[in-house]
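Reading a protein record of the kind used here takes only a little practice. These numbers are not coordinates but entries in a learned vocabulary of local backbone shapes. Here is one such record, which you should read through line by line.
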Amino acid sequence: MRRAFASVRARATLGASLVVALALVAAGAAVLLALRANLTAQAEGRADSAAREVATQLLAGRPYAELDLPEEDENPVQVVDDRRRLLAASEDLERISGAGTAAVKPVAGSGGDGTRDGQADGTGHGDADEASEPGEIDDDVEYSSGSATVDGDRADYRFAAVEVSTEDRGDLTVYAGGSLADEQSAVSTALTSMLIGFPLLLAVVAGVTWLVTRRALRPVAAITAEMSAITASEDLARRVPEPDTHDEIARLARTTNETLTALQTSVERQRRFVADASHELRSPIASLRTQLEVGAAHPALLDVEGAVEDTVRLQELAADLLLLARLDAGEKPGEARVDLAALVGEELSQRTRDRVEVRTELRSVEVSGSRSQLARVLGNLLNNAQRHARSQVTVATRADGAWAVLAVSDDGEGVPPDERERIFERFVRLDDARTRDEGGAGLGLAIARDVAARHGGTLMVREAPSGGALFELRLPGPAVTRR
């Protein structure tokens, strides 16, 4: 069982660690992406600013050789024309990719005369005497990623491309790079911190989960240990400890104790039943054996009638015990249709030894269940009434809404209010009038109530109009669902 608890702790710890790990990975990825995007945007902003500064100088007519270019290692710059020729570039630029061209040296003839090639000797398309539209810098900017080697140092950049239209040099494009070194350094630092911090955080989460789970399962371990001790000792009077909380484990402990209480009651009831049954069986068996031994030794003294009575009594007791065993085992009563009025008529026609008159008030009413079990209930109620009646027993059947009612009353002394539940216990006799010889074993009413409960009904006793006892059996009709 300890292994089971360890397994629960291990699964809880592993599950919590996995959830936290997934959350950390997702959060870390989001942070890295946001950091990279933010720093890349800053690099693009620096590149755009540098490109527009150079474009402004070109728009002002400054020669290529005299352009005031930014620091090469921070913002490498290229100026290309509409034929992708390099017209100006940062001085120490050795290699570049991702910008306007792979060239790093300006073409010949772009040394700074301030004119497009061919215009100085009159072979160009421009005419100084013609009026031309003023130049402008395009508001749109395009970005690209690349690298540049400046003075032997290679670095990654984000290049901004800004187009500028000049009056005398045509359309030009300025490429300026914004260094990604800060972005790479920050992302690398954040990633390193995550790779170091995440495992430590997961270890803390796993440790805390393990300790919390162990503490939470400590009452379960106590319950398990006590249950093992109860199983080993077979002492059903013991109870598991109930934690002073209001959680699921406390409810488990309370439910376990309730189950143990019900089990203890059931076992004690079974033991008491076996003991009482053995005691009840001992008397008729001993009497029958004595009569048979006397008859064997002295045939003239054999009491055949007494032996038959003891045998019948033994047979009835055995039948009662067998029926109780079947009821305790949960035997279903069946779904046959039984007319209570007809059942009463059949039962009374077979009773020839009743000592008092039985009066009937019968109305046809049907129930669903076992005919033999309901007949046993009626017979037991009639036997009980015959033992206590002075001069008359009354049997009535009627319908009461969706319920069928069978009532058996007598004009005897009745049942005291404080004993009206106890008489339905097994092997219970209330007074001296119910002797072992005349009162039976005390199983009739217990059987009657058990059968009533199995049929979804009730059996109660109260005072009859004649002053005796009135036993009322209420059963659901065929259309009523059993509870």
